[in-house]
Amino acid sequence: MGNITKKFELSHGDEAKHRLVCRECSRETLHSIVASFEESGSEDCGGGNSVDWHCKNQIIQCLGCETVSFRTVSTFSEDVDYDHDGPYYPETIKYYPGRSEGLKSIETFLLPHKIQEIYKETILSIENEQYVLAGIGIRAIVETVCKDQNAAGANLYHKINSLKEQSIVTTEGADILHKLRVLGNDAAHEVKAHNSQQLELAMKIIEHMLVGTYIIPNKVQNVFPEKG
């Protein structure tokens, strides 16, 4: 191992506003950087060559909901990409807690407890880039909804068709649920990780089903109670 040098620098927030994804708001909002602890390092590899890195450890705050969280922004000299201007070093950005834009936007407290729990765990898996577990979680949500709605059938394929026969989902909705079933099977049996775009779209489809099956009927019952 060659000689390693490191430098650390603490700086307080700048006046600039940054458009970042807020986990609580479930969308991009303006953020301020409260403080940044920056690490720069270099390792001498000999022959005039070196490996260099830079990492910003930042405390950030949403200027809408005021939630405080943490992110790192790092670059590494061995990670080189190219565009029309030539080589550049792409930034690797991670958030703590993790987050994905547009998810966790439904009123989970109106869901049955078991569905609420597996929904939250699946969201966490996507936010923390645990994509195999997220795929399994999506299938588990569909299975739990089928069980809660007393769908008939020996396996998930027939249970989804039972939801259609009960008019809980439309024909188009059943076709989509079958796609999610296959996605979950790939994750569980083939250990296949789908990408974040596929999983986020799958969760939006799940959310649409949960809203129609549980949340809207719950609200209707509260706003328009049956009169005896």
Please provide a written account of the structure:
With 228 residues, this protein is of the alpha+beta class. It has two domains: 4-96, no CATH class; 108-223, Four Helix Bundle (Hemerythrin (Met), subunit A) (Up-down Bundle). The chain is built from five helices and eight strands. The strands form two sheets. Strands 1, 2, 3, 4, 5 and 8 form a six-stranded antiparallel β-sheet that branches. Helix 1 runs antiparallel to helix 2 and helix 3 (156-165) packs antiparallel against helix 4 (171-190). The mean pLDDT is 88.
Mean pLDDT: 88
CATH names the topology of the largest domain as: Four Helix Bundle (Hemerythrin (Met), subunit A)
Gap from first CA to last CA = 81 Å
Number of helices: 5
The CATH architecture designation of the largest domain is Up-down Bundle
Q: Work out the count of structural domains.
A: 2
Largest sheet at a glance? 6 strands, antiparallel
SSE string, helices as H and strands as E: EEEEEEEEHHHHH
Percentage of β-strand residues: 25-35%
User: What is the β-strand count?
Assistant: 8
Give the structural class: alpha+beta
Summarize the structure in short.
This protein has helices at residues 113-127, 131-148, 156-165, 171-190, 196-223, and strands spanning 4-12, 18-22, 27-46, 49-62, 68-76, 81-83, 86-88, 92-96.
What are the defining features of this structure?
228 residues, alpha+beta, Four Helix Bundle (Hemerythrin (Met), subunit A), 6-stranded antiparallel sheet, 5 helices
Describe the secondary-structure layout.
Blueprint: E1 4-12, E2 18-22, E3 27-46, E4 49-62, E5 68-76, E6 81-83, E7 86-88, E8 92-96, H1 113-127, H2 131-148, H3 156-165, H4 171-190, H5 196-223
Antiparallel strand pairs: 1-3, 2-3, 3-4, 4-5, 5-8, 6-7
Helix pairs in contact: 1-2, 2-3, 2-4, 2-5, 3-4, 4-5
